[in-house]
Every structure is written in C-alpha cells, then in structure tokens.
Design goal:
Helix content: 25-40%
Largest sheet: 6 strands, mixed
CATH architecture: 3-Layer(aba) Sandwich
Shape: globular
Number of domains: 1
Number of strands: 8
Number of helices: 6
Strand order of the largest sheet: 4-5-3-6-7-8
Oligomer: single chain
Distance between the termini: 12 Å
Amino acid sequence: MSGLREAGLLGASAAAAAGVAYLLWTYASSSGGTGSERRPEEPSAAAAAEAHKTSTSRLGESEASQVLVLGLDGAGKTSLLHCFATGSLNQDLQPTQGFNAVSINRDDLHIQFQEIGGKEDLRPYWQRYLMKALLLVFVVDSSDPQLFPVAKKHLHELLSSRPDLPLMLLANKQDLPGSCSITDIHEALCLSAIGERQLFLVGTHVRKGDAELSSGVQDAWQLILQMVCGDR
C-alpha cells in the first residue's frame, strides 16, 4: 500500500509497541492462502493487495461516501476531523454537542463525514447512523485508560450489528505523558475479538499551530482516501 510512512503491516494478533502509527488487518478466509513458511496471522503481500482491492471497489461504489466518526466525549474527534478537512489545526475547537457533518468536495473527491458527539445522551444515535456508514472511524483518548471499558462496550455493540464494516481505530493523544501504547489499547479494547473484518489501528495526535500534521494523522487520512476513493 503506497504513500504510508513506515506503517507496519501486521496481523491483528501481532500488534507491536514501538513507533507512532500501525496498520492492523484481519482477513476473511476467502482473501487467499499463505505459504507454509508463514504463520497464519501474517498475510502474504498478494492477499493484502487483493483484500485492499476488494474493499476499495466496494467502498467506492457511492458517489459520495459516508465515513462515520464516533468515540467518547473528549477523545478528539472534532479536532481530527478538522485536520482531515483543512490540513491543519489553527483554532480552538469545542467538542461536538450534537451532530457535525463535514463534506469534502474537490475535483473528483467526495467524502461525507458524519460525527456524532460522545456524551451518554447522544450514544443511542450511533447505531442509527451506523447503517449508512461505509467506514467507521472510532477515536479513543490514549491518555485516559479509565474510559477504555466504556469505549470497548460501545465499540463491540456497534460492530456486532455490522460484521463486515471496516474499522479505523484512532488511538489519539499519543503525545501526552503517560498515554497508553498501541498494544495496550489493542488489548484493552479486545480488538482480536471483533471478527473477520478490515481493521486499522493508528496512533495520532494533533496540536494547535503545528506547521504540519503528525505522521499518524497523515497516514489515517491517506488510508481513508484509499479505502473510500481508491488510490489518489
């Protein structure tokens, strides 16, 4: 997969701790076999290419593709979405109190992001909008492990109703002292138990006034483009 800076391609059960951003995949058994010298959780390059080709074709069928952005309140959803849309974060943003729709339309690129606030009274709406989504982006605050059990509960409830929905989990606020590693979050959210689906786990952080976006945010954006619109 081109355009990603040193992102590791791993099986979902083989997440590693070093580095900023990781790419985790799971494949249905129909994606292709592996050689006898490989462990089952390490997909071959051919299998990875075929899985990406299939998902790109399916996600690209809609003229305007909807990406649903969810996560608990304060995880950083609004800031990340602003960075995807504008390429920077130059202002203070208030957490979304309800719904936040962002359309990105330029040249032949048409992506509709739908963000729903993460407060308890808004979470019942998550399931309703999930049925329209082509990709779920779920944001977790890496610096607040006390909320991981709540995030896990809601995430697994969502995924149980959409067994084939691709998931991008953004482990946000990786720059804060004491933030949990990618491996910690993988284990805390029991991502190995979400079934056979396409899964991406990326470490991110955003800071107001930075000259450029962090590599994790850039990688996440490139992955969204590839999954929803194909390579650009």
